[in-house]
Amino acid sequence: MDLPVPDDVPDNLKKRPMSTEKQHISTNTSHAVVLIILLSLTAISVSMAELHLGALSVAVALIVASIKGTTVLTYFMHLKYESLFFKIMVGGVFVMYLLIIIFLFFDYSFR
Amino acid sequence: MSYSKNIAPSEHHDYLGSKMGMWIFIFTELFLFGGLFLVYAVFRSQYATDFHKAAEETNTFIGTLNTIVLLISSMTVAMSITAIQNNQKGRAIRLLLMTLLLALVFMVNKYFEWGHKFDLKLYPGSQVLTNLPKGELLFFGLYFMMTGLHALHVLVGMILLTLTIFRIKSGRVHAANFSLIENSGLYWHLVDLIWIFLFPMMYLIT
């Protein structure tokens, strides 16, 4: 019994089982470039901390950390090449966390 | 009967579902540490001078060294996934072994860092620590709690990566089925991601 695939099944369903779905393969060069960027940002953040900028140092440290975190999520964790669904999911979690921080400090500042 | 030959249930593998499950688990981890970050932020704003004084006690050199070690280890994991996708089994294993070595370096540094604190009688519940001003006590409490919980994650990551090495050797992880190495990789990057935020909080901002 040989069951033919009907003609009206779209091509991408015919020959794309989940496990063999085409994957984006990052190159070793791109991994190395990402590492160099992350190490440079670390150097910036450490040298800025040594300048003792006071209240500004907290802001600088957190901004640099956020850039580093985004770089890790985008390239090492491969989000750049994932479907929109993954991007929305991860983005949504960070937006939710940001809202929690905002509400928490509203609460603390006005009590 | 070619129909039954075409369907091989034992080989079914939900690649997308497995990755999505890993991400959802990562979200729970982010909120676990995220909660502690909030505690830190609130206490830091309440005891600014105490936190400033206590943060100067942490060793910025070891902190920076461990940041570099973890960043490099994240790259070796990412490279090993590339190797598996390109069918380079030996290279993938070597890169994972390098990652394990870097993880070990991280833990050894942590041992010396914590050991030095213990020598100064700074450990949870110690007489010296409980006599410190309230804000400094809170800082060290968070320091041991957060870096300790993070170190626990490094250990779990090392176990996961070791398991992955064995699965690659036995041929169960390969170019057409690399969910395990990808998910272990995601976990390892999470460990790195958390450290990226812990590092300035504990070592840089004084």
Question: In a nutshell, what does this entry contain?
Answer:
Chain A is mostly helical and about 110 residues long.
Can you put this structure into words, describing what you see?
The complex is a heterodimer of chains A (111) and B (206). Chain A is built from 4 helices and no strands. By secondary structure, chain A is mostly helical. Chain A folds into 2 domains: 53 residues; 30 residues. With 206 residues, chain B is mostly helical. Chain B has a single domain, classed as Up-down Bundle (Four Helix Bundle (Hemerythrin (Met), subunit A)), CATH 1.20.120. Chain B is 82% helix and 0% strand. The chains are: A mainly alpha (111), B mainly alpha (206). The interface between A and B is large, with 46 and 50 residues.
Kindly list the characteristics that best describe this protein.
heterodimer; A: 111 residues; mainly alpha; 2 domains; 4 helices; 68% helix; flat; B: 206 residues; 0% strand
